[in-house]
Amino acid sequence: MFHVKQPATALALVLLATPALARDNIQVAGSSTVLPYATIVAEAFGENFDFPTPVVEGGGTGSGLARFCEGVGENQIDIANASRPMRASEFETCQANGVTDIIEVRIGYDGIVFASQKGGASFAFTPAQWYNALAAQVVQDGQIVANPYTNWSQIDPSLPDQPILAFIPGTKHGTREVFEQRVLEQGCKDSGAEDAFVAANGGDEDAAGDSCIALRTDGLSNDIDGDYNETLARLEANPDGVGVFGLAFYENNTDTLQVATMSGVTPSTETIASGEYPVSRPLFFYVKKAHIGVIPGLKEFAEFFVSDDLAGEGGPLADYGLVADPELATTQQIVTDETVMAAPAS
Questions:
Q1: Which contiguous run of DSSP H or E holds residue 280?
Q2: 226 to 58, 64, 146, 219, 318: CA distances (angstroms)
Q3: pTM value?
Q4: Does residue 304 lie in a domain region?
């Protein structure tokens, strides 16, 4: 049973130098990965508290943080959901626009999984295989060449004799950054291509890093700018395709999807919590401290989101696929104390 708190009374406070906020509902936007979790919490919040149900939108991590950093006031969102940490450049934009006190809230962990149509060929992947499948340039016989591979079995005979066709998160999604770091960059290193790029760029490691995540443009690698439902639809229309999803989405679509292993590990809440599964990431939301005490229920919503009842083991978010944060109590204290984040490292 959730404890119901009474609504705040000081709703007519002036927000710094801006006009007082008249809006009475919390507004949230951002990550499509965090979207279903935030929606679950918003609905439960509306049912159990004397506040309006928060309005939760998607749009992607980058888009949500861009809106979050536009400023403070009635016409600005209160919370941005994110499937990666806020970047230094985003933090600087926030500061420049008057969003100076930001509370970073880690809600738990999620894994990025690689799934295909159920009943089709099964896959056991490594990061190097994904790099060689999607990179614009690869290394063959010690030479950097345009990617010649069109079939998974050309990369590794252990993979299915099936055309390469991948549907990956677009660049505005936080999932894309994790995909680039944990899969493409790792695969570039594992395959030896990183060393070749460093040498070809006169020792410039940044330029080599850009080469590692540069993708082929011949139609075999496809950015998906929508949510995971769009990726699922693309797989339904392309039986040979492999898509990138969040663990929770996969676990709620096991009737149509089968998941691949990565580096010999099957993704699950257990292997993500233990750190064994290599492609996992923390999930966040960001709160404007200036809106607390002005937008009714904002702090109560943030506390509710990371409560043991919601975000702890056995709660509804875990049931949906969130991997509970072993340091959840620390996060709860951050929200209670309204501790603002420090500037991210550049």
A1: strand 280-288
A2: 9, 14, 29, 18, 24
A3: 0.70
A4: yes
